[in-house]
Amino acid sequence: MSENHLPGRSDDVADRIARRTLAKRGAAYAGEVRRLLDAALEVMRERGTASRPRVADIVSAAGLSNEAFYRHFRSKDALVAALLEDGTERLHGYVAHRMAKEPTPERRVRAWVGGVFTQAREEIAATTRAVLWNAGALSELAGSKPPVASGRLAELLPGPFRELGSDDPLLDASLAAHATFGLLADYVWGGTEPTDGDVERVTAFCLRAITPARTGAEDGGAGPRAR
């Protein structure tokens, strides 16, 4: 070995090159996943609830190979679960953006309701129905209900609920989210869209769902409640 060899510096170079290679591969893999998700969404939208696409259909639409598919997903069910998660995150980001533009907690709650109900619009609802229909097969195979978005979207409500005096903003947010998403499911599967009046009524319901914090006088001055 040459006396000028510096192991530490050589290892640093090797690590840097390896990280660069992994970063390129990671970007390429992320691109493959996005192509598969987008292709699956498009194929499901086209087929609706008439038939469920095969892996071969999705791979063909994505312009990828079966090897690329199974590099990222164990099965079609895993892809459907990823589609649900991806859609939930997109909706979460959209609703959060709407809420951030509002100056009061009441208006943020209304923005939340209106944002959730955009999923019932005709151009979106058809895709939502198709994905949920495919997710129905997932739940039958897994022996459990498919993942739902209500829990993730409920995370946006404790803040405004707390500002409005909720004694238990997490529970109140969960109750409001379950009720709102239950109604959303009726709209989506029934092929109807909520009106502005519906948005106002559901907003009023969510605001009434807030459990006000108790005061000492309301508790009769009894001190902390027993657990």
Write the layout of secondary structure elements.
Elements: H1 7-47, H2 55-62, H3 66-72, H4 76-100, H5 105-117, H6 122-142, H7 150-154, H8 158-163, H9 169-190, H10 196-208
Short overview:
The chain contains ten helices and no strands. The chain is mainly α and about 230 residues long.
Explain this structure to me?
- With about 230 residues, this protein is mainly alpha-helical.
- The chain has two domains: about 15-75, Orthogonal Bundle (Arc Repressor Mutant, subunit A); about 75-215, Orthogonal Bundle (Tetracycline Repressor, domain 2).
- The chain has helices at about 5-45, 55-60, 65-70, 75-100, 105-115, 120-140, 150-155, 160-165, 170-190, 195-210.
Structural category? mainly alpha
What's the gyration radius in Å?
A: 24 Å
The helix tally amounts to: 10
Distance between the termini: 72 Å
CATH topology of the largest domain: Tetracycline Repressor, domain 2
Keywords:
Tetracycline Repressor, domain 2; mainly alpha; 2 domains; 10 helices; Arc Repressor Mutant, subunit A; disordered C terminus; 227 residues
